């Protein structure tokens, strides 16, 4: 068997291709990660968080439910706390509303400032009906977002709040 000697030119070609490939991979990796990140994030958005609220204990009066979970953002993990106003409607269905005002993002309160049977935003006097619909003539121009809900072992689970349209 004859050994084929590697010429200086071939050696340089192989070496440069290797180094070039390594550098190209280093540049492409972040771009690929950037491109597929929304796909990964979408998976996370579909997650439900378990709260300490027992569904059996819910009534027709909205209660404030706070819940926390860990959020992974690239290499950084942080604890996020969110809130929902939760009650059972006339059909016994669980309704969970985001407390974030659709005007400028303040937090709304159930029956705040003596507004009976309504959510009240203290920042600019925004009002919402119990189902989250914004009251015309007050600053908010859209209904409160609504959490998708599930029940696990008797406890309420909440997904990511979504905009709702109320006729
Ligand atoms: S932020 Fe709620 S009314 Fe302005």
Automatic annotation (TrEMBL):
Component of the menaquinol:cytochrome c reductase complex. The Rieske protein is a high potential 2Fe-2S protein. InterPro entries: Rieske_2Fe-2S, Rieske_2Fe-2S_sf, Rieske_Fe-S_prot, TAT_signal, TM_PetC. Belongs to the Rieske iron-sulfur protein family. Keywords: 2Fe-2S, Disulfide bond, Electron transport, Iron, Iron-sulfur, Membrane, Metal-binding, Oxidoreductase, Transmembrane, Transmembrane helix, Transport. It comes from Bacillus thermotolerans (Quasibacillus thermotolerans). GO terms for molecular function: 2 iron, 2 sulfur cluster binding; metal ion binding; monooxygenase activity; oxidoreductase activity, acting on paired donors, with incorporation or reduction of molecular oxygen. The chain crosses the membrane at residues 12-32. This is Menaquinol:cytochrome c reductase iron-sulfur subunit.
